[in-house]
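Support request, priority: normal
Reporter: lab tech (M.K.)
Component: structure prediction queue

Hi team, I submitted a job for VOC domain-containing protein from Paraburkholderia largidicola yesterday, and the status page still shows it as pending. I've pasted the exact input below so you can check whether something in the sequence is tripping the parser. The sequence length should be 161 residues. Please let me know if I need to resubmit or if it's stuck on your end.
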Amino acid sequence: MGLKFMEHILILTHDPEGTRDWFCNNLGFRDGYHPEFGFPVHWLYIGEQDVVHIGRSRHSEHQDTYLSTPVDAQGVDYSSQGQPGSGHIDHVCFNCEDIVEFIERLERNGTTYSERKAHNSNLYQLFMREPINGIKVELNFQAREAIEAGRVAEWTSTGSE
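Reply from support: The job had stalled in the queue. We restarted it manually and it finished. Here are the results:
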């Protein structure tokens, strides 16, 4: 029940290909499959698990909107400017179970979150910001669990529903 394991990090950088190559050449990751998001990304794998996601900082307005969370509209710019050395970890992701318990806990604590059905995958996601440091947190659940709980995503592959 609850958190199962840390799933991945997303690094936004001015040089996604160079970042990918460094992780692959120096640490032994392999570049592999990723869903279509409407902007370019690289997913790096250890075995069969994607662990590091890499994207270009400030690639497009669509990407900025897709990567935002509900509290981002409050005027704080969490995104990297894409200059050399400005690469940052955009979010941390945890694989989870018991979406009903998580939603009850988040709502009980007054945490603002958004819901998304991940593109052509079996994931249902909750996104929020940790308010002290601005770290975006992604919680991934099996889509079947969300459907059984009657959850309907605010975002899909085509944007806001």
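Residues 16-27 form the longest helix (12 residues). The beta strands are 2-13, 30-32, 41-46, 49-56, 88-97, 114-117, 123-130, 135-142, 155-156, 159-160. Let us know if anything else looks off. Ticket resolved.
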